[in-house]
């Protein structure tokens, strides 16, 4: 399942353009990484694709279907899932209940739900021991895993991950990325945004740089291997407030 | 002879019975606030509407009062649906748009009822309106007992719905994080509409029960709204048990307050309690986090 | 244009001749408008939804009643009423630390509580003995002067640093506080100013009526109608409430100047519609957006 973004422009409070004419292809079954300095609009892009923000213009096409007029929950029906940057577990619900909420689409089929639950817990075994605890009692990293597991319950074809490793200890970061590798093996198309360049690039097939609301370049990671250090250098330069030509 | 024990026993039982009804009255407000973050100031008006619906159904169609209540519920729900579609949906969350809007709604509903049915007090008479039964040393008015039983049953059903069904848990999920819920495929707006209608149904139901116990008029709405606020301040929006406890506490405070201070000041107890709670609860009226996650 | 309006205001009794109905009507109208402007200070500029506005009105009216019956000159009594209202504002001020919705509930409850408490003591209100030598028309002129004063005060506030403080509190308290705006000082200031002006009006109103019943002077209509005027016309400006007042007068005129339940329904509907479609009020939406009039500040 591929994701195509065409001419996407997103405004903030009239006249302030956060994203301008974004053109992006996310190839099926691959991990596409989006890197860029703070404020570049990466989260905004993911939120817009998820349907939480309305673009001023542009199209978002999921496997040939235009999803930009759809509400967020409709997009889930078409196979899109997102893990938000902020903490988003349902704090007063147990881990199991959180996961069940991910199963809303399939709620009428109890057998299917149990199967999905089992599958997801296979990928995230650490959650099994905490199933009946309130999710607010989990650590940051565990909550993160719960959020990803929950998103997986929707059986997504395309998964958007917004800074999955943010605020986590290095050990947890490695664990999360191991899980992302697993997701890759499940042929889920992933659009990944992260500040942790090293991990991000290690798992990516494609890399794009976003700066000040525009895509500044990128492509297949292996093709960029040589210029990857250039890209990183440019990125660090951008972080410090410089401007990149071309 | 009216010994102190009997009197206090009597007052206490009466307060407990009323407390259950108060909890039912409040739960609708709590639902809307929890799920939609809207403080529905017109809540009292929906309760009174339910009272009138019950009254007219039982009078015009000559139905049994309890059957009338059952029929009044969907009628109230229908009103709720209309209000939700026309007014609440798509309201800007800016400033205090929801609260002002519900204020306007209060005016429209209350005044319409005044026009339609005048300000004369009414009440619903049942075969056992004036009857009481004896439980030990205490005289228990039958209508209050029935209202209590019905309230408790409905509250329990609601509890089961919210904790055991998918839809119920989804409603709770929306209350905790509506954005996250949407990203999981949960139809947030649809469930919010459902919650609103459910809330007005509950309001209508409690209105019908109220109509059997006291006489009512269109201007009685704000009084119930106030009581609901107090109970929510005591209980926090989060749980049904808390609201039941809150209803009990308010009811007891009122009963004993009006016993000692005179019935004219019965509501003043509620008002002052509310203000004290507002000022002393550091986490705000409903115990919610003051800062929502951005 | 302001001077014409002001002159018109004063000319009304002359034009009306001896027509008491028109004078009475103008009196009520001026009362509501002044209330709207004073509510605007707290609700419009500072963004605190005060639903207990009637408390200022009622307390002042009561003070006026008691003092006049004790022999004081009514206009002095009005001043006393204003001071009593300041006292009320200070009493209310602890509620200011509450967030929007809750402040609204708190102020509403406080006013209701006071009303009920007073009703318990003075069920039938206080009848006033009229002071020698003061006519209805003079009362009206007093009120008109008051209205103009509040207009000027609002104008001054609009041009001053105080407005910036108020508006910053309205838009984002945390940010305002972080930028060095003393939240407590300015919120209380807004409330006190609002209360004082309202109190003065309450006093003169009570005297004009020669009868001060708790149910009436603490009635929610003294909150609702000014609120209505400000919401319709636009918060936080001088012209906003005035436009709202004109619209209110218009609706009133159409409804043949009778306060019936129908008028309440109409008001309620108008509030709901305005909030839904023009949440910023008439001024904002029509003048600023449609006519493209640029405002000089980000307010």
TrEMBL record, chain A:
Any one Gene Ontology biological process term? L-amino acid transport
* GO molecular function ontology, one term from the record: ATP binding
PROSITE patterns, A to Z: ABC_TRANSPORTER_1, ABC_TRANSPORTER_2
Q: Which residues form a coiled coil?
A: none
- Which UniProt keywords are given for this protein, alphabetically ordered? Amino-acid transport, ATP-binding, Nucleotide-binding, Transport
Q: Which domain of life is it from?
A: Archaea
Does the entry feature the keyword ATP-binding, yes or no? yes
InterPro entries attached to this UniProt entry: AAA+_ATPase, ABC_transporter-like_ATP-bd, ABC_transporter-like_CS, BCAA_Transport_ATP-bd_LivF, P-loop_NTPase
Domain (ABC transporter) ranges = 3-237
Instruction: Please report which protein family the annotation says this sequence is part of.
Output: Belongs to the ABC transporter superfamily.
- Protein name, entry field: ABC transporter ATP-binding protein
- Organism this protein belongs to: Caldiarchaeum subterraneum
């Amino acid at each position: 399942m591929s994701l195509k973004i065409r001419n996407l422009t997103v405004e903030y409070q009239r006249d302030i353009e956060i994203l301008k004419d974004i053109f992006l292809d996310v190839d099926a079954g691959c991990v596409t990484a989006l890197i860029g300095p703070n404020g570049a609009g990466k989260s905004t892009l993911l939120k817009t694709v998820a349907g939480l923000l309305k673009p001023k213009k542009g199209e978002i096409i999921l496997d040939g279907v235009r999803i930009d007029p759809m509400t967020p929950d409709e997009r889930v029906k078409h196979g899109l899932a997102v893990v938000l940057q902020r903490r988003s577990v349902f704090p007063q619900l147990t881990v199991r209940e959180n996961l069940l909420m991910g199963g809303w689409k399939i709620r009428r089929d109890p057998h299917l739900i149990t199967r999905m639950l089992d599958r997801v817990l296979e990928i995230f075994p650490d959650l099994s021991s905490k199933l009946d605890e309130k999710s607010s009692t989990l650590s940051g990293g565990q909550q993160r895993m719960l959020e990803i597991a929950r998103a997986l319950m929707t059986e997504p074809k395309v998964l958007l991950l917004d800074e999955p490793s943010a605020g986590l200890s290095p050990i947890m970061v490695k664990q999360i990325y191991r899980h992302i590798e697993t997701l890759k093996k499940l042929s889920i198309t992933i659009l990944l945004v992260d500040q942790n360049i090293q991990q991000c690039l290690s798992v990516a097939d494609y890399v794009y740089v976003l700066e000040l609301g525009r895509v500044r370049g990128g492509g297949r990671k292996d093709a960029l291997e040589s210029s990857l250090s250039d890209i990183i250098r440019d990125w660090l330069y951008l972080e410090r407030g410089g401007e990149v030509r071309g | 002879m009216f010994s102190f024990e009997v009197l206090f026993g009597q007052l206490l039982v009466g307060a407990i019975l009323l407390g259950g009804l108060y909890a039912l009255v409040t739960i609708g407000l709590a639902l809307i606030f929890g799920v939609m973050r809207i403080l529905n100031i017109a809540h009292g008006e929906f309760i009174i509407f339910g009272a009138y619906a019950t009254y007219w159904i039982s009078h015009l169609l000559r139905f049994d009062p309890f059957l009338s209540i059952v029929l009044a519920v969907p009628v109230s729900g229908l009103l709720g649906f209309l209000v939700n579609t026309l007014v609440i949906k798509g309201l800007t969350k800016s400033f205090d748009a929801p609260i002002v809007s519900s204020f306007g709604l209060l005016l429209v509903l209350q005044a319409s009822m005044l026009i339609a049915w005048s300000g004369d007090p009414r009440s619903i008479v049942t075969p056992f309106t004036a009857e009481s039964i004896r439980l030990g040393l205490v005289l228990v008015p039958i209508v209050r007992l029935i209202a209590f039983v019905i309230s408790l049953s409905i509250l329990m059903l609601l509890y089961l719905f919210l904790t055991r069904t998918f839809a119920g848990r989804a409603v709770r999920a929306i209350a905790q994080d509506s954005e996250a819920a949407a990203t999981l495929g949960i139809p947030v707006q649809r469930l919010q509409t459902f919650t609103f209608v459910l809330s007005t149904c509950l309001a209508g139901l409690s209105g019908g029960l109220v109509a059997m116990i006291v006489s009512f008029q269109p201007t009685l709405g704000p009084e119930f709204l106030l009581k609901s606020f107090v109970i929510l301040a005591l209980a926090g929006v989060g749980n049904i048990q808390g609201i039941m406890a809150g209803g009990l506490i308010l009811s007891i405070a009122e009963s004993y307050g009006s016993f000692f201070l005179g019935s004219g000041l019965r509501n003043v107890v509620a008002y002052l309690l509310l203000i004290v709670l507002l000022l002393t609860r550091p986490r705000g009226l409903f115990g919610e986090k003051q800062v929502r996650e951005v | 244009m302001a001077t014409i309006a002001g002159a018109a205001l004063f000319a009304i009794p002359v034009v009306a001749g001896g027509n008491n109905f028109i004078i009475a009507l103008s009196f009520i109208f001026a009362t509501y408008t002044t209330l709207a402007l004073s509510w605007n200070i707290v609700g419009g500029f500072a963004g605190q939804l005060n639903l207990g506005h009637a408390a200022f009105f009622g307390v002042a009216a009561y003070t006026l009643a008691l003092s006049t019956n004790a022999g004081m000159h009514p206009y002095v009594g009005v001043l006393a009423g204003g001071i009593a209202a300041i006292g009320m504002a200070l009493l209310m001020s602890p509620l200011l630390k509450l967030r929007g919705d809750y402040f609204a509930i708190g102020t509403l409850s406080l006013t209701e509580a006071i009303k009920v408490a007073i009703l318990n003591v003075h069920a039938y209100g206080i009848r006033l003995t009229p002071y020698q030598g003061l006519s209805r028309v003079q009362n009206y002129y007093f009120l008109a002067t008051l209205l103009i004063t509040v207009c000027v005060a609002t104008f001054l506030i609009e041009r001053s640093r105080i407005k910036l403080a108020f508006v910053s509190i309205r838009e984002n308290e945390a940010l305002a506080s972080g930028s060095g705006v003393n939240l407590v000082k300015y919120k209380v200031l807004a409330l006190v100013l609002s209360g004082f002006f309202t109190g003065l009006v309450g006093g003169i109103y009570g005297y004009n009526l020669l009868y001060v019943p708790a149910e009436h002077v603490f009635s929610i209509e003294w909150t609702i109608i000014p609120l209505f005027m400000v919401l319709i016309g636009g918060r936080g400006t001088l012209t906003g409430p005035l436009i709202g007042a004109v619209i209110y007068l218009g609706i009133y005129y159409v409804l043949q100047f009778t306060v019936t339940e129908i008028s309440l329904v109409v008001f309620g509907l108008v509030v709901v519609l305005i909030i839904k479609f023009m949440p910023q009020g008439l001024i904002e939406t029509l003048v600023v957006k449609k006519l493209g009039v640029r405002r000089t500040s980000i307010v």
